[in-house]
UniProtKB/TrEMBL annotation:
Protein name: Neutral ceramidase
Cofactor note: Binds 1 zinc ion per subunit.
PANTHER family named among the record's database cross-references: CERAMIDASE (PTHR12670), NEUTRAL CERAMIDASE (PTHR12670:SF1)
Binding-site residues, Zn(2+): 185, 301, 548, 592
Single GO biological process annotation from the record: ceramide catabolic process
Amino acid sequence: MDKPSSPPKAAAPEDVWLRQDTGRSNKSRVVWIALMKVLSGFVLGVLFYGALRHFNPSFGGKLRYIGSVDGEVAAGDGGNAFKIRKGSKYLLGVGKADITGPVVEINMMGYADTKQVGSGLRQRLFSRAFIIGDHERPDDRFVYLVLDTQSGDTAVRYGILEGLANLGSDYSVYGQHNVAVTGTHSHSGPGAWLNYLLPQITSKGFDKQSYKAIVDGALLSITRAHSNLQPGYLSVGSTKVFGANINRSLYAYLANPEDERAGYNTTNEDDGSVEKTLTLLKFQRALDGKNIGVLTWFPTHGTSMLGNNTLISGDNKGVAADLFEKSLNGDETAAKGFVAGFSQASVGDTSPNVLGAWCEDGTGRQCSFKNSTCSNGKSQNCHARGPYFRRNDNGASSCFEIGKRQFEPAKALYQDMDNLGTPITGSSVKSFHIFHDMSNFSFPLSNGSYVTTCPAALGYSFAAGTSDGPGAFDFTQNDPNTPNASPVWRVVSGFVHEPSKAQRACHYPKPILLDVGEVTSPYLWTPNVVDVQVLRVGQLFVVVSPGEATTMSGRRWKKAVAEEASSLALSDSAAVDPVVVLGGPANSYTHYIATPEEYSVQRYEGASTLYGAYTLNAYIYLTLTNLPYLSPSSNTRPKPGPFPPNNVNNSLSFITGVVFDNPPIFKKFGDVKTDVQHSYRAGATISAVFVGANPRNNLRLEQTYAAIEKLDSSSGRWVIIRDDSDWSLIFKWKRTSEVLGTSEVEIVWESEEGTGNGQYRIHYWGDSKSVGSGAISSFEGLSGTFVLT
Ligand SMILES: [Zn+2]
């Protein structure tokens, strides 16, 4: 075992902490910001419309070009000229909103470990919404959502679509065909919001509060993006990201044909075993040339925070997005409210634990190449290592580092997009979406022979987990007396199905552990109906994948789309090559998508490929069949297909609510139990403990539980310099007595080297639930003042 040589510390660059000081208290600041956001969207819209009318009375047409420089057009509002490389004009909008669900007492989603239950918050979770519309035909548009969640989901998507329908005619333009709900694949968020039974087993069922936080926040991000829709330009570029991913199933990857792999093997550092390319789409508004957002795609698992972490965060993608957005505070190239989406890509066989998988059994050996097992023949001792694995911080330092390794090249590319980017051209903004039942779907391969997919099933290696999270699921320990066994498992274990001969043959060579696709009691365990969706703007095509495509699966899928798009001449100009990206896991969660060759190896990714060896081929077939709907002249949509079940109101739940909160005798909520010291050096870890209450009483969405405040000596006001969105500020909650209802909150600031001198304090906002009436009342706590030198 490796022990930490120094106390855990998040390495933070100084320049990312720039914050606007408003001088207002946090509560009023949040209300003020929310109000301003609503108002400014409206006022800006009116002003902008007026400005356009002023210099071009036929607004709805084009901005006035005032000259052409070197293949670029300089456009302007009559005063401030700015350069834009040639590209088509679109309607663009971005928005961001808080989706942080219950941060305590809820099982976390990703590692499928009943013991991994939230105990606090390291970083708030967000939904980031990107809307792209056709400038001439504004009904042709799509929404791409990036949620800091493990995946997109059927129930969540139903909730978002219902919410949009309830927003009235302004939002009737959004529907099944043009809303993509993707997740960053963070394994550090609260769970209990998924539609199907399997992930609900470890979370003890479904939790409406957890679900609603995601749906409501996603909707709010969409309405924000919608209300700031405005004309603008898109450009796409790519860069290499090194040191942020490796292939965790190289043995399976090597089963793919050698000549195919050789085509992607360019250098030692970029040997093709994972994709090192990050693709960036930049959103620039026409009004003044300022950028309003970026959307990036790069594959690496959201498993930097390890399975023993119990603090909610957006994992490495959450770090990258936060660093990017905060780095542009006050930057002249970026508009206020700039949104950076770090979307997941062909994530299936990638790992952010780039130092590889090692046996923690005293042998000092790497896990076996073939099975990721250790000296005892089992996988439980095999653990993947991030860059700072020696620090005993549940992966936090490695997570920050892997986030930074994505942020830095993305930022460098952003700054040089004028040279490295390609303008998006062509007026077409199109999308399609279908549901398709994958059980027993027969379709032709390119050689003409017919193959069939099967009702979903999981193989034996699924239970073994991966080196990022060994031993997932508790299935073999189905002992009702085991304290950690899920009560859901006790209810449903009797429904486990013995697969038929035909089902076994269909999944061959996968040995079936769980025949999930053929059990409908008490309701479906995993989806049989999948989402197939592609979005398209100009030459950019976004394959929206419901499963975790492996590196080679993603490549085959994207290549097929690029070739078909070229042969159908879908780009408006033959001179422009299609650019294809893959985003997911999205819309539903259909586990993994391995190639047939990887499937034959049956490591975790192959064992978790739900519909048999031809799962990937089926997805590609369905995608290509529907691709003509993206043609510029298309004004029809494919048939929607069979709708999947919505289990929001019929899911099992053994999750209990907050009973009540009480302060200890002679104390009140918010009282300081352990205060700060009088002085610290910048870089020190600073903490205070308060008499607390259960944070599930109020999610404080768009607000904060914790803050670091600094005294502004000129005004005498306390100004918030860190809040729940900051990686370095940690909010921990602990129940101290079930019977008495007492609890405590510890707020920890891992202060950064280079933080300015001055006077600081820690501020806590809580909400308690009263014993009798169950009424919720808010309270505050303040630490003593401390000096940072
Ligand atoms: Zn995964």
